[in-house]
Model the fold of this input.
Amino acid sequence: MLRMNVESAKFLPAEVRRRLSEQQANKISKDGDLILSCQTHRTQGRNRAEVVKSLKDIIKDAWERPKKRNMRAHGSISKKGKKKRVDDKKKRSKVKELRRGKIDW
Done:
């Protein structure tokens, strides 16, 4: 088992510590300790190495900044989306028109 206090880990930037706390909230105790354990291998050494590897992976995931997403106003559709929808409607209309056939009376 490995314990690391997230708030006192000054080797990590504050932004990374905050993301780490958010992402791993279920593994952090009330004292602020990140608790990791592993029991997959038969030896303590291999289990410890596995825990250290998982800690590195967790920190690497928290290190990456999330993408900033540009949100459009509620209900608005992009120009490309509108054009595609209109083109699809025109295609469907053409197919249905061809199905009807022309009847000369």
